[in-house]
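As a point of orientation, let us examine one representative protein, giving the amino acid sequence and backbone structure tokens.
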Amino acid sequence: MTAGLPVFPPEPPRYPMYDLSSVNDERGWMINNVHDPAIRKDGRWYYVFSTDRKVMRGDASPMRPGIQVRRSPDLIHWEWFGYALDGVPDAAREWTGAKNLWAPDVIRFGLTYYLYYAASTFGTNQSFIGVATSPAIEGPWTDQGEVFKTQRGDVPNAIDPNIVLDADGNPWMVYGSFFGGIYLSRIDPNNGKLVNYGEGTLLARRRRSVEGAVEGPYIIHNPRFRKYYLFVSYDSLFTDYNIRVGRSDRITGPYVDYNGHRLTDTDVVPPSEVGTKILGGYRFGNDDGWLAPGHNSVLRDGGDYFILHHARGGKDPDWSYLHVRRIVWSDDGWPLVSPERYAGEYEQAIAPNVLPGRWECLVLDRSSNGILQSQSLELAGDGRMVALEDDKRGRWEADGLNRLCVWWDSETEDQEDRSWAVTAKVLPAWDWENWRPTLVFTGITRYGTCIWGKKVP
């Protein structure tokens, strides 16, 4: 990369927020009413399959079940595509009494597409994971029945399936939700069912003091670092969802966070210390912000990585929206999520002389998972840094590629202290809050705390 003036993405579509006029018009939903999105690229299209959900406001008619489907040519412009299934399949409905379907995932084995879905009685583990098949990703789909089910009294909870291929091409299903932990089982690619029926291998679990709140698992393999990454969502999907990650040399674990905690470790106090937090509720400046982002999927598209998740509007949390964000990787192999939604940006060399100015900075505190407020930071042209709210001072430096390091001066000695330094990657991005192009950074400290920054006028 040769440093120069940044190339910013073009203006993206301005999707309407809190739009009552479209509550009964699915064509106007686009990124609205998305919950638990699963991404699959097929040909020139990107498809998102998601939980059956509808904002029940105004003159809203009853919600239709059947797995919602949207598609995009570029991960930016989204359109409504339809429903994958015609309601809740009989076996799933009879076992759970469910009125809708949750947390789908799609994969192709050979010439056949497999659509996994979950049905459950909310707040219990009377749950059912099923699968449907089709010769095309656009359907029609034929239900093939049960993959795995659980009932009240069982430890695991059979929802939130994700199908992942290991480095040798073998398929596995990672699943589980909330109180029972996260599990992994082998899948037979000839029929999409479990090789050995049962709960499988435990990958993640949390303390009873937080009700065991871990769900929405998703695993990817990064061949560059030769690691498997387990993404999960902590806490309540209504109020304080946040996305954590651990990594492992083997798909079966153990998965550990940046600080070496196993995701199965229930002895760490407080439990919020387990799992590297890469995304949570936030607010830049005076914007309404976003609440409870979570239940993600991850797309590897060539050498590019993207995380897709839902988030609730800070003004009215009943409305959930699809977010797509670019993932960049730290030099030591940890995924870092862009502070802004994807608009076409890409990694490029950034000249240091475009970095000075006012920045809004967000520390993704592991112990606080509501909406976190940004704070102002000034990067001066001579390498000085000032945190404006508390007048803490430090230094910054950039390498002329896209790496930025910011550190705070020691509070006890008149010297530099890089123990609280953030090493970050800089991206040209679209500022969705101020509706303009801008620069952002996403980084991580030596303590495993992720920090975001956005340059503002």
